[in-house]
Amino acid sequence: MVARLDDARRQLEDRHLGAIRRAEHLASLGKMAAGIAHEINNPLAGMQNCVRTLLKGVRDEARRLQYLTMLQEGLSRIGRTVGQLLNFAREAEPQLVRVDLAPLVRRCLALLEHELAARQIAFSVSAEHRLPALLADPHQLEQVFLNLLMNALDAMPGGGRILVSINPWARETGPFVEVHITDTGVGIPPEHLLRIFDPFFTTKDVGKGTGLGLSVSYGIVRAHGGSIEVKSEVGKGSTFTVALPIKGEGESDAPSDPLSGG
Fold this sequence. Notes:
- By secondary structure, this protein is α+β, with helices and mostly antiparallel strands.
- Helices cover 51% and strands 19% of the residues.
């Protein structure tokens, strides 16, 4: 009788935990759907205003250029959101070529230079001389570092500083290159650190993010045989560390990275 009661209690607990997990999953999906709707609708509304104004005729060339720039930024924002969803859904295999990591990271910062200046965020990059090349997918890695850098920007609404360092590192499993991205932002609460790489998890307000960026980045780094970790302290900032394995000796004949001109 006692054994049957224990078994019945365990079954009830399992069903209860399962119901809680399903409810949390549905809540996450609902928040993600609302976030995606806002991520697309907000720039669309601004773009429609720009188009209406341009159709009326704008004689001032500087004003016309401003509206065209706003249209371009809105399209880029929508493209990033859709791209995140597609990458999460298809989990594409990396297309490996030789990649020089330091120029790739600097290109990502260059793409965000206007945004960094607008938010009064300073940045610096330090890289050890003659870093070894990697076998990696440059487009996927750009997505990873852009996601991490955008998160750093969002963590510093009042301005701050981003420090990027790139160094080789010997691990038990072999030689790696580590990229450390440190911000001086608001930090991540301890209760969120274990969940930040989960799909759909986000602490941002609705319309400020889909909760897919870090999850997609985690999947890309793992597909490259690497790891991604975070250390953070509330009120002091965060450091994300991406570790990627260095190519083996027999892999030197891989094609060059088309983005680096190598």
